[in-house]
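Before surveying the methods themselves, we first show a specimen of the format, giving the amino acid sequence and backbone structure tokens:

:::
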Amino acid sequence: MKRLFRGVLACVAGAWGAAELRAAKAVNGTRDVGQVYAEFCSGCHGEDLAGGKAGSLIDAKWEHGADDEKIARSILDGYPQAGMPGFRGAIRDAEVLALVAYIREVATRQVDPQPGEEAGLPQGVLQSEEHAFRLEVVADGLDVPWSLTFLPEGQILVTERVGRLRVIEGGTLKKEPVRGLPATILVRDEAGLMSVVAHPGYAENGWIYLSFSDHGPNETAMTKVIRGRLRDGALVEQENVFAIPPSDYQQSSVLFGGRLAFHGEHLFISVGERGMEEFTTGAAQDLSLPNGKIHRVYHDGSVPADNPFAGQPGKFGSIWAYGVRNPQGLAINQAGEVWETEHGPRGGDELNRIERGKNYGWPVVTRGMNYNGTPVSEKKEAEGMENPVIDWTPSIAASQIEFYGGDKFPRWKGQLFVGSLAQQKFLRVVLEDTRVAHYEEVFKRLGRIRDIKTGPDGLIYLAIERIGKPGAIVRMVPAEGG
């Protein structure tokens, strides 16, 4: 089973050094992958994973099947006739799942390492499978542009995570940000100003919706949604749309979710689990709490009576679906289906079709692991919990999604686009019900894609964060002859 453990070791080597892995702290009575490897594998395959008595474990080729179940079986049962012992009884089921995740991580990182500094935007024509296009900068000089929305007058509003709402008008980024945003926006780690969405009836009512990390007492925070109107460069007439009592906030500055999507008379809101794995309390499974949920409210924030848990004692009435970790993408297709992407921990990023009242499993089931290499759960699936349509292990840090609704790229009509942060990928997914019929990497390594929107002109607009450099709003324009 030399080739199987090549994948295991390559995964470990690609993630951390052997010393760091052995020093990682185990949780829930399980060991980190480095500890497991050191005990059961290093005597034959070497401490540095490069081989010893047995061969190197780097090339990630599988003689006995490459899916998760076959790799797990190889670890547990081995192939004694080939000199590969089985470790059933010596390695726990949850530890095996962590090993499989490591295998995925290394197999990918060997051929597709995580980007460092991004390349500059390419000049000239780029060719995808279906369309040729160019990338044009609409505005730059932005500090982590998180979200964008279009106004009927031709303006584009952009949120910067540092707490500024900016206006692009006539192709120029206005120097002064919008005044009057809440003074309680917390800017730290992942916290900050997040989504901006114009009401579908903005031309009549002027409502602008914002989500942000609200700073509470004793350095606590929580996802909050407000709406207001733009007047003379300021956000006025502000109202709460989604807010919980500050006494219920958490001392964490990560996993906020924060995406907003309108459909008919409803507004859907994604809220993250709010605690990293060492602080996970199971809030995403607790229907009395808003954390780790997709919420559905009316435009003014009131709760629809037909929500699945509305009016039930002890349950948070705005919950539409639950069991999500950090939902960074939210979009609704032409059929009215709600789709979501979420960050797993280390591995286990997901694309899900979100349905009324359903449970998406976090943290009871996941294909990811803790950041220190220990298992989150011994289960990848369970009865009554929905499996993801796509599972990305290793993580791509899936961000916003968009069903293309324009006419400038006709062969992309209705298809799903997915952005990513860590891997800086822009992906095209062709869906047939919940089956992925086709998958294309349109481009990568141009920056962390925070938002994707179909513009009123039918072009595709991207909010791109660039590491160590100002971010930009970029649009995809069809190229002649594509």
